[in-house]
């Protein structure tokens, strides 16, 4: 599931990991908060930044409410309504809507790390955003400790 360097304290170097993900629907917000939290905890980094990057043109990553799963479903439905699968679009592969949705959500996020934990708000979670699924995907995670002076 992940690959990267060995854990260390805040004076350690940056650590890179790859999460292998599998989605089950064409449009899906997949809560990956727990997986990212595990990486941060295992890193030993107490203060720093966790960078998240999606190397796909039809997927993204966002931070939003994770307490109520209906929020993610509402976001999925609203994006599908705003950018329908059927077009009309000029892109001939049949997934122009997926590219547009990925542009709207973005392909990267950064979350601060404080006291060894992601500094997410009370209701916040991290979501991998699938717009051309179901597919096997990857999310790159880079954990960077704050410099020690």
> How much of the polypeptide forms β-strand, as a percent range?
25-35%
Please outline the major beta sheet. 5 strands, antiparallel
Query: What's the overall geometry?
Result: elongated
- The order of strands across the largest sheet is 1-8-3-5-6
User: Mean pLDDT, nearest integer?
Assistant: 93
Per CATH, the architecture is: Sandwich
Quickly describe the structure.
This protein is α+β, with helices and mostly antiparallel strands and 149 residues long. The chain has a single domain (24-145), classed as YjbQ-like (Jelly Rolls, Sandwich), CATH 2.60.120.460.
Explained architecture:
- This protein is α+β, with helices and mostly antiparallel strands and 149 residues long.
- The protein has one domain: Sandwich (Jelly Rolls).
- The chain contains three helices and eight strands; from the N terminus they run ββαββααββββ.
- The strands form two sheets. It has a five-stranded antiparallel β-sheet with strand order 1-8-3-5-6, covered by helices on one side.
- The radius of gyration is 16 Å and the shape is elongated.
- The N terminus is likely disordered.
Summary keywords:
alpha+beta, 23% helix, 8 strands, single chain, 3-stranded antiparallel sheet, 149 residues, Jelly Rolls
Give a topology summary.
Blueprint: E1 15-22, E2 28-31, H1 33-43, E3 47-53, E4 59-65, H2 69-82, H3 96-105, E5 108-114, E6 117-118, E7 124-130, E8 136-145
Antiparallel strand pairs: 1-8, 2-7, 3-5, 3-8, 4-7, 5-6
């Amino acid at each position: 599931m992940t690959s990267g360097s060995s854990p260390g304290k805040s004076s350690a170097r940056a650590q890179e990991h790859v999460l292998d993900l599998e989605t089950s629907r064409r449009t899906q917000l997949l809560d990956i908060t727990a997986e990212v939290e595990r990486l941060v905890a295992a890193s030993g980094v107490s203060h720093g930044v966790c960078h998240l990057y999606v190397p796909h043109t039809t997927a993204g990553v966002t931070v939003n409410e994770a307490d109520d799963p209906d929020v993610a479903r509402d976001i999925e439905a609203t994006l599908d309504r705003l950018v329908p699968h059927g077009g009309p679009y000029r892109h001939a592969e049949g997934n122009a809507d997926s590219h547009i949705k990925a542009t709207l959500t973005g392909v990267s996020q950064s979350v601060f790390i404080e006291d060894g934990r992601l500094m997410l708000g009370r209701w916040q979670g991290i979501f991998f955003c699938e717009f051309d699924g179901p597919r096997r995907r990857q999310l790159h995670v880079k954990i960077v400790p704050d410099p020690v002076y």
